[in-house]
Structures are given as C-alpha cells and as structure tokens.
Amino acid sequence: MRLHTLMRPWHLHRLRDPAWRTLFEERGDEYVSLDCETTSLNVGEAELLSIGAVKLRGNRILTSEALYLLVRPQTPPEKPNIEVHGLRRCDVDQGLSAEEAVLRLLDFIGGRPLLGYYLEYDVAVLDKYVKPLIGCPLPQRQIEVSGCYYDYKLRQNPNSYVDLRLASLHAELGVPQLPRHDALNDAISVAMLYLALCQRSGRR
C-alpha cells in the first residue's frame, strides 16, 4: 500500500490523456471486484480471453451494474486452456479487441479501488495493455482478498497455519461458491468474500 501511494504522483505524471485523471480519483465506499480469464498463467505470454467486474457500494454488490467482456486474443485458446474456462475459439472470435475491452474496463472502474483473489496476476496482465494506452499502469488502490483473510486468521491465532485456497475461504466464511473460471462469477465470489470478511473483522 505504501509503495502504491508513493508511485501515484509518478503514474499521474506519465498519464497521456487528462481525461483519464478520473482513474486517480477514489470514490468513497465504492469498489470494483475484478477477475480475468487468460490464455496462460505466465504473465509474459498471457492474453486476455474475458474480463468480469462488479461494483460494490457499501454492503451491496451491484450485480445489475456488472461488466462482462469477451476478448479476442491473437493466439486462439488451446485445448488444455479451454478445459479450464470453457472459452472456445468460436466464443472469443466474436469478442472485442483487447484494447477496446481494456478501455471499457477503465471507464467502468474509474477511481474505485480494486478487489481480487491473487489480484496481482490479473493486474499484471491488464497492465500489458493499459500502459501503452494511457501511459501508466492501473493506478487504483488494490485490495488482495487472500491477504485480508490471512490477516483475519492470524489475529484469531497468531501461530496458526492459514489455508489460502479459495475453497477454504468460502468454507470458513460461509459464502456459497459459484461455478469457477467464469470471470464474472469469480468477481462476484470475491465481492461476497470481501463483504463477509468486512462483517467479521470490522474492516473496510
């Protein structure tokens, strides 16, 4: 968090279009839960296949304002990848270009902080497209739900082992699991986990 705060002036300086200054303007108690499906787990190779995002306002998940985008990669998804997320070439061939999808995502997010489960990976993939488009990486504050859960469990028992598998978070927090590896479902699941954590720990 401290490094992110220190880097914000530099990122703002690198911004190419003043219209995107809104990305630096955090909005009260609103957040965006984010998830991406990609062609690889290697950031350098990964291309976007789909993006799911949903807004949170206070204690509500605004599913009516959710965003789901299919993205057309330069390299079609291969069989092992399709078996994970179910997105076939015929599905993504009708998708947006990565650049158009990312611009729509930026407009949707604005300055809202981002939530995610292992969010660092999704942000790293997105930044491959964001930096050339606006001149800087995603500047929003980022909240890692697995990190929030880790802190929550250690406060209960400082010497305990903390299982950070997604299924364990759902079980511990009593949050129902939606079908996984669908970008929007995963974003909604993270939003539910975050609100459950906030309710138990009193943090926001």
Biggest beta-sheet profile:
5 strands, mixed
Q: Give me the Rg, rounded.
A: 17 Å
CATH architecture of one domain: 2-Layer Sandwich
Could you tell me the CATH topology label of one domain: Nucleotidyltransferase, domain 5
Q: What integer is the average pLDDT? A: 90
Helix content: 40-55%
Lateral arrangement of strands in the main beta sheet: 3-2-1-4-5
Question: How would you explain this protein's 3D organization?
Answer:
This protein is α/β, with parallel strands linked by helices and 204 residues long. It is built from 8 helices and 5 strands, in the order αβββαααβαβααα. It has a domain at 2-143: Ribonuclease H-like superfamily/Ribonuclease H (Nucleotidyltransferase, domain 5), CATH 3.30.420. The protein has a 5-stranded mixed beta sheet, sandwiched between helices. α4 crosses α5. The longest helix is centred in the last third of the chain and has 19 residues, at 183-201. The chain is globular and about 45 Å long.
What is this structure, in a nutshell?
The chain is an alpha/beta fold. It has eight helices and five strands.
Features:
Nucleotidyltransferase, domain 5; 204 residues; 8 helices
Q: How are the secondary structure elements laid out?
A:
Layout: H1 2-14, E1 30-38, E2 48-57, E3 60-70, H2 79-85, H3 89-92, H4 98-109, E4 114-116, H5 119-134, E5 142-144, H6 145-156, H7 166-173, H8 183-201
Parallel strand pairs: 1-4, 4-5
Antiparallel strand pairs: 1-2, 2-3
